[in-house]
Amino acid sequence: METAEEIGVKIDSLRLWDSAMACNWGVKPHGVAFPYFCTVLRDDGPLVSFRLLMLDGWRTLHDFARTRADRNFGFYSSPMEMPHFELIVLRGGGVELSRNDPGFVPRRLDARERELVAKILWESYGVMMRLESDKGLAVKYAGEKAMFARIEAADGTWSDAPLHIPPPPPHTETISLSRALVAKAKDMPFEKDRAVEMDFRINPALVTKDPRQRLVYTLTLVDAATGGPLGACNFSVAEKDGSLADLWQPLAGIVLDRFVALGWMPGEIKMMSGRLFRMLRPLCLELPVKLSLHDSLSWLAKLQTKGKTGNG
Length: 312
Description:
Blueprint: H1 4-13, H2 17-20, E1 25-28, E2 36-42, E3 48-56, H3 57-69, E4 84-90, E5 95-100, H4 111-133, E6 146-152, E7 158-164, H5 179-186, E8 190-207, E9 215-223, E10 229-235, H6 245-248, H7 251-262, E11 265-271, H8 274-286, E12 290-293, H9 298-309
Parallel strand pairs: 1-6, 8-11, 11-12
Antiparallel strand pairs: 1-2, 2-3, 3-4, 4-5, 6-7, 8-9, 9-10
């Protein structure tokens, strides 16, 4: 069999990305624990044109679908954070492959993964060629509440088959606040006319220095009136068994601890993220602070403008 990169180049040469974007399909090589679900995303950046994601199993597919319907669902800020293999189609020609895991910087594939991905891409190549003449291929088993898939038998032969869609697992979040910390906050001055702008996101300028580099997530607090910094904290998932939930769920306590350190409570916290809003909502149950959602934050808009103009 050709290498995964060579198959990726063949897939790109079909020029069927637009048709493929409307479809999802599964591929289950023999001997793997779960199927991989293939979906295509357009990339509007300067270096990449399309990405073919090979998502790990039903849980990831459900999370992908729910996050696309509601970008604030769960804990994923970007498909990049979801567990999957990825074929990256470069605008200048050629392709690259990566392995993505939650909270980690995408990495190159090892030999075993390259063999697995080559199988998935070869079957995907065949599916995409068939999509051109058979527009209903991807929904062939929709009436059975199943997804179209290519499945490998023990003897190495492949066939079309339905993968019956299980219900998505329930999503749960656990957010708690220290009673002692809340008591301290209640004793502090409450500045009802003072607002704070807050943001929590992947910091593209930072990664950890570990052999397997991790993404860095930065929590930023800024005085809304003056633009003055009130604190910034960096976080990463644990090297072993870490999860994105471990980053998001403690934020209410971390934010409250920061205000206790500052010695005052604001009347309002402004943010852009509905997910961050949800994580901080318990603060409103304990303290007279208002949370508000905005399309932009003044300090972040200035920072982005500087980045575009090359200043700062």
